[in-house]
């Protein structure tokens, strides 16, 4: 019996050690968050082992594990849900059942997942789209773009842009009874990146007569030039998105060549010819003092490699929307930006909000001191968090007020 108790105690200590991570006091439901984070870390360890052994690519293992999140396109009393194709690109379409004598609003939603994982069919994305459609009486188009590593940049951008161009045609808007003046482009994380990029591109697409009225960027990733901002330093090991994972997502977006991942990990992936773009992502110029704290700005050193020449997407605004100049920014519509204090991507969103405001664009910036990356994934059982519900409600309320 004593031996069994000893082994049980050792197992308990090891489990507690694995589960426990230090969290800021501001994060609510801390033990639930620790369990969620441990689950994600476990999937990451298994994926890394499979990758090292050559059994399966890291991202394929993660996507396989996430398949338990899949939901069927089931309609309910408020919304008709269908999986269909727009311009040969899969989308999940949400059409409200409520009959009105006025035209409907529309939201084009782009899911996150580091351009490598994710789907409109994930239960959290499906639920968020249902809520948006039902509460706004709006048509929601959730885009199922192709993913890395099988498809690299600019495939993801092109898929989303293709869906937008299709949906913004007069005959399509008329088919769904959508008001051309009440359309939003929205997305979270990598989807926020794509939302920002396609909204920029739409401003100069003179073949289209329709532009989004607003854009909503939820904890977006917006630049790959400097992966050593204060938020990357402070939140390198925070749930849900650790720095090493974000760097992996960035590198896989362009290539599965691990040498790019290694260079990005040390912030040495640029070349001398691209250094002039740093001015658009220099956090020392765009972050408020309370986020700069005592951090010292270190200008990224150009490496000796030719990564930027081999993978020009690294400095392409379609992959890094923060890198456009102020002339381009001035064309953008009313923008909602959501950032989380304990998120490696926090400073990307804060810098974009700062630059947009300086360029004269109307910006609503909601910053959550008690939140970490990917919060909107936790709006459904069994991993739902009260902070995630508050965030989702605030986002939908903003859409309702401004769209």
How are the SSEs ordered, and which strands pair?
Blueprint: H1 2-19, H2 30-52, H3 58-65, E1 79-86, E2 89-96, E3 104-110, H4 123-136, E4 138-143, H5 155-167, H6 170-175, E5 178-188, H7 190-203, E6 214-218, H8 230-234, H9 243-254, H10 258-265, H11 283-286, H12 289-292, H13 307-310, H14 326-329, E7 334-342, H15 346-358, E8 363-372, H16 386-402
Parallel strand pairs: 3-4, 3-5, 5-6, 6-7, 7-8
Antiparallel strand pairs: 1-2, 2-4
How would you describe this structure in keywords?
403 residues, alpha/beta, 8-stranded mixed sheet
Account of the 3D structure:
The protein is an alpha/beta fold. The chain has 16 helices and 8 strands. The chain has helices at residues 2-19, 30-52, 58-65, 123-136, 155-167, 170-175, 190-203, 230-234, 243-254, 258-265, 283-286, 289-292, 307-310, 326-329, 346-358, 386-402, and strands at 79-86, 89-96, 104-110, 138-143, 178-188, 214-218, 334-342, 363-372. An 8-stranded mixed β-sheet has the order 1-2-4-3-5-6-7-8, with helices on both faces. β5, α7 (190-203) and β6 (214-218) form a beta-alpha-beta unit. The termini are far apart. The relative contact order is 0.12. Mean pLDDT is 93; it is low at 4-14.
């Amino acid at each position: 019996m004593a031996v069994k108790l000893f082994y049980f105690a050792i197992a308990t200590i090891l489990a507690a050690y694995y589960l426990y991570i230090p969290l800021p006091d501001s994060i609510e439901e801390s033990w639930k968050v620790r369990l969620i984070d441990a689950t994600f870390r476990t999937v990451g360890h298994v994926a890394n082992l499979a990758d090292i052994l050559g059994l399966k690519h890291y991202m394929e293992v993660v996507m396989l594990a996430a398949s338990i999140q899949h939901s069927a396109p089931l309609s309910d009393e408020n919304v008709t849900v269908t999986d269909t194709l727009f311009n040969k690109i899969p989308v999940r379409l949400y059409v409200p059942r409520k009959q009105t004598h006025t035209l409907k609003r529309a939201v084009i939603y782009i899911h996150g997942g580091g351009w490598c994982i994710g789907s409109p069919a994930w239960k959290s994305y499906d639920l968020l789209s249902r809520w948006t459609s039902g509460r706004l009486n709006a048509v929601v188009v959730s885009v199922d773009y192709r993913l890395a590593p099988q498809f690299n940049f600019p495939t993801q951008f092109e898929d989303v842009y293709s869906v937008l161009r299709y949906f913004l045609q007069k005959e399509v808007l008329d088919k769904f009874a959508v008001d051309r003046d009440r359309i939003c482009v929205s997305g979270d994380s990598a989807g926020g990146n794509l939302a920002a990029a396609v909204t920029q591109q739409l401003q100069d697409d003179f073949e289209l007569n329709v532009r989004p009225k607003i854009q909503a960027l939820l904890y977006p990733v917006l630049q790959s030039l400097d992966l050593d901002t204060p938020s990357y330093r402070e939140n390198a090991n925070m749930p849900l998105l650790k720095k090493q994972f974000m760097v992996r997502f960035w590198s896989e977006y362009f290539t599965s060549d691990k040498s790019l991942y290694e260079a990005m990990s040390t912030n040495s992936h640029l070349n001398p010819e691209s250094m002039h773009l740093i001015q658009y992502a220099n956090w020392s110029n765009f972050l408020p003092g309370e986020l700069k704290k005592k951090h010292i700005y270190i200008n990224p050193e150009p490496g000796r490699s030719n990564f930027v020449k081999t993978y020009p997407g690294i400095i392409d605004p379609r992959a890094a929307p923060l890198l456009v100049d102020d002339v381009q920014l001035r064309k953008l519509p009313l923008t909602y930006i959501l950032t989380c204090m304990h998120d490696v991507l926090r400073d990307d969103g804060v810098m974009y909000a700062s630059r947009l405001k300086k360029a004269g664009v109307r910006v609503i910036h909601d910053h959550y001191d008690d939140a970490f990356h990917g919060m909107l994934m936790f709006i459904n059982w069994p991993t739902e968090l009260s902070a995630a519900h508050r965030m989702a409600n605030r986002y939908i309320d903003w859409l309702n007020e401004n769209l």
